[in-house]
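Supplementary Note 2. Why include the ligand at all?

Several targets in our set were suspected to adopt different conformations when bound, so apo predictions alone were not considered sufficient. For every target with a known small-molecule partner we therefore ran a joint prediction. The input for aspartic acid is given below.
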Amino acid sequence: MKPPRPNLYRDTWAGEVRADHVDQEVRVAGWVHRRRDHGGLIFIDLRDRTGLLQLVFRPEEAPQAHAAAHSLRSEDVLTARGRVVRREEGTVNPHLPTGEVELAVDEIEQLADAETPPFEVDSDKQVDELLRLKYRYLDLRREQMRDSIELRHDVVLAIRNYLNERGFLDIETPFLTRSTPEGARDFLVPSRIDPGSFYALPQSPQLFKQLLMVAGFERYYQIVRCFRDESSRADRLPEFTQLDMEMSFVEEEDVIGLCEGLIQAFLAAGGVDVQVPFDRVSYADAMLRYGTDRPDRRIGMEIQDLGEAFAQSEFQVFRGALESGGVVRGLKAPGADLTRKRFDELTEQAKQFGAKGLVWAVVEGEGWRSPIAKFLKPEEMSAVASALGAAEGDAILIVADTADIAARVLGQLRLDLAPPAEGNDLLWVVDFPMFEWNEDENRWDPLHHPFTSPKGEMNGDPGSWASRAYDVVWNGWEIGGGSIRINRPDVQQKVFTALGISEDEAGERFGFLLDALKYGAPPHGGIAFGIERIVAMLRGSESIREVVAFPKAASQADPLTGAPAPVDQEQLDELALKVTKPKE
Ligand code: ASP
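The joint prediction is reproduced in token form.
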């Protein structure tokens, strides 16, 4: 960092004092990170944004400063002036960038008092998360948090630089708007001027970025807050940040190619080097082999279809599943020490994921140790063992069910049984279907969003329509997803119709988009990346809250400000709102 303008408080960053400052007079400012009173000498580690500097107070040379240092406490704020000196041999700290030197203080002024913090700022001890969030401003003083927030900045800067060099314009889109469906609930904001009407906070800038393409901006991006009211899940935040992008006159290859370079650039900002291009895996293949559309291929253990091996099986569970249009699939858990008890647990787990049951087996000699071994022919067992590459002592887990359930269950078991994986696996998932069937609502839902362009014909069963969507997956996490969009109003209406949205309803909800598509909409496509997920993965953080300065807790509440909070009756009256179910 460039040095600060010399003022009352400082002329040098504490964390940037080095051996070439020796014998210079400097003034630094910051917080008391730690204080050690050695009877005679007092040492203080002074902390500012840039790091730590050891201050030394000598009773003979600077009695006043020494006396003042005596009463300082952790997290007090001060400014100190002194001479940079080399540390004595044996006291050099190689772990600290300033560790070769210290500041022999001549003068000190305390600028603010600090009460004893509710947790230690100078350690990385585990602290209850709600307490950390309540005192987030103290939590953010801790080294780990500072590093996370700095890394987030570096990642965002790498993104901005990369896109700026390629002609992308950073354009803001509204927060007070209409619903932008991305599959979650909207956060609503009541209108005072028009009582009974509501703005929705955007789930994404999807429609606006498409309008910007209609407007001719060609290349847009925004690092933008999005709002989705989902039941709290460990990996979701009600407000989160996306890198949102859109380009005109592009095909899939243009977006994917540009994004591979972009991903390479922002991962490099976090010290991760990856090779491009990334592999591509079709949705169908991902679901079959990994049981998920965001596979982590580092862990191997691919799921295999065993339908052929059991086509003639006399074991009713397998035959029944196959005859009713279902599947029999399995995976190998290599050399696992799987006891009966563990298999029972896994069976329970499989049931929780929706399976009717789980078949387990351990390869032993020529046959299997398994409750169903007696129902199987030796050639079935050997066909399965060879399909899975299973050898002596390997466990085999088999699910006979619908394709969806088999994928979900085996996909989960695969993750649960996987050994820890290292390295980086980046891939694109492509060839998604347009829709997925929503059992509960008895209708089709878009697999991405309703503005995704279909690929090829839209005839017959909507379940068979393919889309021009693509997701990018890093180590089993979807870090980005997008598509080529629909740019013709008739196609857009056809998709709405397939989703059960009538022309009237489409006109009401998305008329502005359908109108815009009538005025010369270029072919366009884009993508959005989840910034928090990316930074959290680069930091090795479990939770995305670790890379947000002021996140909501898992409950969606903010322990710091107390939001959400009731409001005055007057405010409710102004908005013509009545609370029918007040909080107890
Ligand atoms: N709007 C999409 C999302 O938020 C991303 C995209 O299609 O560009 O997931």
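The pocket of aspartic acid is lined by residues 182, 204, 206, 449, 481-483, 526-528 (CB under 6 Å). The CA atoms of residues 20 and 156 lie 33 Å apart. Comparable summaries for the other entries are listed in the accompanying table.
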